[in-house]
TrEMBL record:
Known cofactor(s): pyridoxal 5'-phosphate
CDD domains assigned to the protein according to its UniProt record, in alphabetical order: AAT_like (cd00609)
UniProt superkingdom: Bacteria
Protein name, UniProt field: Aminotransferase
GO molecular function, one term: pyridoxal phosphate binding
PROSITE patterns hit by this protein: AA_TRANSFER_CLASS_1
Keyword annotations from UniProtKB, A to Z: Aminotransferase, Pyridoxal phosphate, Transferase
Key word Transferase present: yes
Claim: Transferase is one of the keywords in the record: yes
Record family assignment: Belongs to the class-I pyridoxal-phosphate-dependent aminotransferase family.
A single GO BP: amino acid metabolic process
Length: 393
């Protein structure tokens, strides 16, 4: 064994590669596998954005931007947030351009957490937060929202704060939520804000799916809790730009001044060419998400109805592009085993709910960022699996 293995930061041995990625790699070699696994739009980046990137390349826009990002892009991002969600940020010192929302989360958590701190994490939730909390030698306090239709309540927050007191430094919000697709009404957000503002808590609000909501408007908690909120967003989901790696942090200037230090040493700045493409996305393409949203809405309705008929209890999603479905009692309840068997027997890959924390055990996540043709075939394979296994019980 290499003796240097004993010299790593010992926190690295406490984290693992995401179960989403591990499961996807495990089932990918299966011949003719149909995957509804990763959270990536099946649409291509709009042409006008690609043309803006090509123009930037031809104009030799290949140098460093400032640490905070291209000034025009920060102005456009500020205007976008004001128009869409009525939240106002000064582009000069309250907007950071990041390498995707992932880096925005990393920079924010590393900036605020000290060893021994605790942070409230509603669960089930995207698995990218916990490892960063662990690396910071802080402790996640998971709040099981499955008992309330995956909606966090003020009472849940109050209960945890009574248990853990002043050691709680922050709370993470992710809505529309990955994996459930559930989001919050204005009244629910206002109620959460009223509770949180009584305490000296940071709010890390990951709103990357804000442009993809159905039957309800997206309301940023920053509208009610600006001084405490580190608002995270980006273009991966709204503009089908996952590979371009452009995200944003919006926060009061006092908070931004500290976060930018971490951001600088992590990445220096986001890619200059991608930033020029992002400028086109937020100006000419300010409503690029609308055609995609219409299609996602149709797919959501189709899958919700079909899975309900198959006996799955589904949290009705009003955002993002996921369904989170409870495995019927007559089938394997270990979600990893269920998904492995489904992939091996019927060549359909869905993500085990356990990948999103213990509150997700017994569920499966289905990504409907796929064509209707693929979704129809997926339902067929899932129906065949349920019929075959019911007959064997």
């Amino acid at each position: 064994m290499n003796p240097l293995l004993d010299h790593f930061n010992n926190q690295t041995y406490k984290i693992e590669v995401s179960d989403i990625r591990k499961f996807d790699e495990r089932v990918s070699p299966i011949k003719n596998i149909l995957k509804l696994t990763l959270g990536e739009p099946d649409f291509n980046t709009p042409n006008h954005i690609k043309l803006a990137a090509i123009e930037a390349i031809n104009n030799n826009e290949s140098h460093y931007t400032g640490m905070s990002g291209d000034s025009q892009l920060r102005e456009a991002a500020s205007a976008f947030m004001q128009k869409k969600y009525t939240v106002s940020y000064d582009p000069k010192n309250e907007v950071l351009v990041t390498v995707g929302a992932t880096e925005a989360i990393s920079a924010s958590l590393l900036a605020i957490l000290n060893p021994g701190d605790k942070i409230l994490v509603p669960s089930p939730i995207f698995p990218g937060y916990e490892p960063l909390i662990t690396l910071s030698q802080a402790t996640p306090i998971f709040i099981d929202t499955s008992v309330n239709g995956f909606v966090l309540t003020p009472e849940m927050i109050e209960d945890e704060l009574k248990k853990h007191g002043t050691s709680v430094k922050a709370i993470i919000l992710n809505y529309p939520n990955n994996p459930t697709g559930v989001t919050y009404t204005r009244a629910e957000i206002k109620a959460l804000a009223e509770t949180i503002k009584k305490y000296p808590l940071f709010v890390i609000s990951d709103e990357i799916y804000s442009e993809l909501t159905y039957d309800v408007e997206h309301v940023s908690i920053a509208e009610y809790l600006r001084d405490q909120t580190i608002l995270i967003n980006g273009l991966s989901k709204s503009h089908a730009m996952t590979g371009w790696r452009i995200g944003f942090i919006f926060a009061p200037k006092e908070l931004t001044a500290q976060i930018i230090k971490v951001h600088q040493y992590l990445v220096t700045c986001a890619t200059s060419i991608s930033q020029k493409a992002a400028l086109a996305a937020l100006t000419v393409g300010i409503d690029d998400a609308l055609p995609m949203k219409i299609e996602y809405h149709k797919r959501r309705d189709y899958l919700f109805e079909e899975l309900t008929q198959l006996g799955f209890e589904v949290a009705r999603p009003n955002g993002a592009f996921y369904l989170f479905a409870k495995i019927p009692q007559e089938f394997i309840q270990n979600s990893m085993d269920f998904c492995i068997e489904l992939a091996e027997k019927n060549k359909l890959a869905l993500i085990p709910g356990s990948a999103f924390g213990s509150a997700g055990e017994g569920y499966i996540r289905i990504s409907y960022a796929a064509s209707m043709e693929k979704l129809v075939e997926a339902v067929k394979r899932l129906r065949n699996y349920t019929q075959e296994n019911k007959s064997n019980l």
